[in-house]
Amino acid sequence: MEPFAYIRATTLQEATTAYASHPGSRYLGGGTNLVDLMKHGVETPGTLIDLTRLPLHDVEELSTGALRVGACVSNTDLAVHALVRTRYPVLSQALLAGASGQLRNVATIGGNLLQRTRCPYFQDVSKPCNKREPGAGCAAREGPHRDHAVLGHSAHCIATHPSDMAVALAALDAEIELYDGERGTRRVAAADFHRLPGEHPERDTVIRPGEIVTAVLLPTVVPGAVSAYRKARDRASYAFALASVAAVLHLDDGRVRHVALAFGGLAHRPWRATTAEQHLTGAVPTDEAVREAVDAELAGARPLRDNAFKVGLARNLARDVLSTLVRSASGGSAPTGRRP
Ligand code: SF4
Q: The domain 56-340: what is its CATH number?
């Protein structure tokens, strides 16, 4: 590992000032991804600015019933928080599906959002990678790429985003709060926080240089809404998603009043399935309607040589999760195929 300087910030202003005065610095949360990348030589920051002493460790219920989650809250603490487990089961389930117990105890919510792809070529500095070095090429295109993207990829990068939590946040219509020493605070919709690769795969998110993730805002839950997260992976734990699904559903008099569906493991960012949502909104959610909606969404998939299986996997996951939520929201009995 290359030598680096270490600064422990105790205020946001201190952190952003340190960032501005130390070119090539990086913010440090739990370090569960960044430090690994430093060991591999993928990241070589001259200075690490530790944010874990900032006052960002609280989960606060706002007067509206929404939750404000500080960026330094650990993945474990958020997953087991009583209000998260009861109001946002999709988020608790997604967090518990990620990494291992030890990693979840250390990893922060802010760091979870900013973790980098686990594309093996990105992590191997002997291989060309446009994300690590713009213009170098993409070794994954010709090499084995069964774990890579089937939606939204570009000629420059076919990597997938690794976070489970971010998929749940996209489905929940959460917001990410960002702080910049000069411009103050702004909020970005979680579904818009991560980018597709396009011509600039080196940029994973819309965050600006020097900005700090300070909080995640979870909107008020509508009474009667149900939610769930499901993940398919190569082993039962401690593995990234081949495909995953986060869904939120609210029925009103047997019809879909609100549905949000997001896929993980399929694209460079959590993939909000807006086509499927449009198909289902206002409809009676029969098995046939769910199948048609999911198929319409995945009709846009562009699988690569090794990963066509992901399309079928995602289709089955989404249909199963939505059908399960329909039964739950209907009090245990799914609607029949007969339309009123
Ligand atoms: Fe790099 Fe993206 Fe290609 Fe992986 S898929 S080698 S991250 S450019």
A: 3.30.465.10
